[in-house]
Write a structure and sequence with these properties.
By secondary structure, the protein is an alpha+beta fold. It has helices at residues 13-27, 36-71, 78-98, 121-140, 170-174, 262-293, 328-332, 337-354; strands spanning 110-116, 144-152, 158-166, 179-186, 195-206, 221-226, 242-247, 252-256, 304-309, 315-318, 324-325. β7 (242-247) and β8 form a beta hairpin.
């Protein structure tokens, strides 16, 4: 068995140690807590980095000890050494998977939105199913989820919902879900029991609003206040604390109603708007590069990424990585890890071919 821990690639221990030193020095400054939001963000980053480096260093120490035991040539230690190497191999494989999170924003929190496609009740029910799937996935990975906005369906389901999600590599885990999801099933809302195809869109952005520079002209914005409501339309607040912001030049619409005050909701909505405008600008640049390369790339949001077929057969298939399973129930219960890993490995391979 050959097991090694390296300091390069997606997990550079030396680089992370240097970042820890920078953060420790900054957190020791008297004015560190003058900006509480920034201080909390840097503190979370420091704790995450320290946890990661400590884990890798611990594994490296255990590996060294196991090699020394093996070099002693004591047959009585064979069983102990084998068990230790097996344990180390499993843990290192898990950590090796983390090196797939190689994008600069993979370790950031995420803003995730779900939107029902055309099709009324069918699509809105499918959007609610996706919400359940993604929230269960977040729960399994111990992510913290905060609902920012929700618009319920006319009859059932969901028109749209937005969440702020934080945790270890939250954006790295969730970015694979961005795109159009397609459901094929016998409709529970069709008295003739016919097969229906429904679509819903998932948007995922890294929460880097504080790190990017986007100029937004307030003249381009339309602010609409409304009363926030809880699940099912209950507990409607008496004051108009919820906010909807419309960006005229792009037509982007964002809203937030989870905070208690109009000011807090406006700040959250502006953050989401900033991220969407940044993403739009990044996409424009990517389109220009693709055009120069002579590639015919459809950059619209209508690209289907995954199909969930419940009838006439059962299958979930990702159209990018080609990964598939015949157990859609498990997937819809939030078991997405295999799809995420397949996507990340596919993405790294595709990026390598483009270079």
């Amino acid at each position: 068995m050959s097991v090694s821990i390296c300091s390069g690639g997606g997990f550079d221990v030396a680089d992370k140690q240097q970042r820890i030193e920078v953060l420790l020095a900054e957190s020791a400054a008297p004015e560190f807590w003058d900006e509480p939001d920034r201080a909390q963000k840097l503190t979370r980053e420091l704790m995450t980095l320290q946890k990661q480096v400590t884990l890798w260093q611990g594994l490296s120490g255990r590996l060294t000890d196991a090699r020394e035991l093996a070099g002693m040539g004591d047959d009585d230690l064979d069983e102990e050494i084998t068990a230790e190497l097996s344990s180390l191999s499993t843990q290192i494989d898990d950590l090796e998977f983390q090196t797939l999170f190689s994008h600069e924003y993979d370790d950031k929190p995420a803003i995730l939105s779900i939107h029902a496609g055309a099709g009324g009740t069918e699509a809105q029910d499918w959007a609610a199913m996706l919400r359940r799937m993604l929230l269960r996935f977040c729960e399994k990975h111990d992510f913290t989820v905060q609902e920012m906005d929700e618009t319920l369906g006319d009859v059932t389901g969901l028109k749209s919902a937005t969440f702020a999600i934080s945790g270890d590599y939250a954006h790295g885990w969730l970015k694979s879900e961005r795109g159009v999801h397609r459901l094929v099933r016998i409709s529970p809302y069709d008295s003739s029991a016919r097969r229906h195809t429904s679509f819903a869109k998932v948007e995922v952005y890294p929460d880097i609003a504080e790190e990017i520079e986007i100029e937004i002209d307030e003249k381009d914005l339309t602010f609409q206040r409304f009363k926030a409501s809880g699940a099912g339309g209950q507990h409607v607040q008496k004051n108009e604390t919820a906010i909807r912001i419309i960006h005229g030049p792009t037509g982007i619409v964002v809203s937030c109603q989870n905070q208690r005050s109009l000011t807090q909701n406006t700040e959250s909505a502006m953050k989401v708007l900033k991220l969407q405008l940044y993403e739009l600008e990044q996409q424009k640049q990517a389109d220009e590069i693709s055009e120069l390369k002579g590639e015919n790339v459809d950059a619209g949001w209508g690209n289907q990424i995954r199909s969930y077929v419940l009838h006439p057969y059962k299958m979930v298939k990702d159209l990018r990585s080609r990964h598939e399973t015949s157990n859609p129930t498990k997937v819809l219960d939030g078991d997405l890890d295999a799809f995420v890993e397949a996507y990340l490995r596919h993405k790294i391979g595709a990026d390598s071919e483009d270079k």
